[in-house]
Amino acid sequence: MTGSGTRPQAPGLLPPETTDDVRDRKAGVAVLPIGSFEQHGAFLPLVTDTVIACAIAREIAAAYAVHLLPPLTISCSHEHETWPGTVSISAATLHAVVRDIAESLRRSGIDVLILVNAHGGNYVLRNVVQESAATGTRMALFPGSADWDAARTGAGVQTSSQGDMHAGEVETSILLHAHPELVRPGYETSDFLADDRRHLLTLGMAAYTESGVIGRPSLATAEKGKEILAALVDSFAEYFSLLTLKEPR
Predict the structure, then answer these.
(1) Region annotation Disordered: residue ranges (predicted)?
(2) Cα(237)–Cα(149) distance, integer angstroms
(3) Of 235, 231, 88, 239, whose CA–CA distance to 173 is shortest?
(4) What stretches of 133-197 adopt beta strand conformation (E)?
(5) Helix H or strand E segment including 34
(6) pTM
(7) What pLDDT digit, counting tens, does each position of 155-207 carry?
(8) What is the helix, strand, coil percentage profile of the chain, to 5?
């Protein structure tokens, strides 16, 4: 039973497939959502990036023959650790976990792994994909910056990609569409811009925002979130086609 003080949980983070579902689908491509567990201001949950990664991955799995994996929910959020609740692992640990997952998939006959990353601080994932060419697993990192740009344009997002850094228009829109029960009141009045963040990695987020927000969540709508996800599903087609070719280019 749910206590009266318990907030609702995000459904759909774990894929419901059985062993027979996976066997019947015969998917040669696995999709791994990667989020984070970090502050997202006062109106979005700590699990925001994981919810977004799962929303993207679920839409992909509905449109393409892929094996949807459960998410990695804690990653590299060190720049947010001034705020209580944020939990991080090292880049080396994230690298090792993704590599181990890829090796396990390969042993069961799946040799393509696409990382659906929703946290910008997971820089090491670029290196994981870069190094994968010599491992026997073909990998990609999705969405790329061009995919996000196309989705933002198609959805009519008004905040620039530079300005919309954290808990802003895009992230709030996706949650308003996919899981509105997780969005608390207050996003309508929480806009804060800090476009000059040249020392972010050295100083952390707290040097640039007191609230944890950098962006304009007041412009968020569920319709924008829906259109962003639809555009990302369309962009995924190029990745899927490239990685399922018999002979890589």
Answers:
(1) 1-20
(2) 16
(3) 231
(4) 138-142
(5) strand 29-34
(6) 0.93
(7) 999 999 999 999 999 999 999 999 999 999 999 999 999 999 999 999 999 99
(8) 45, 10, 45
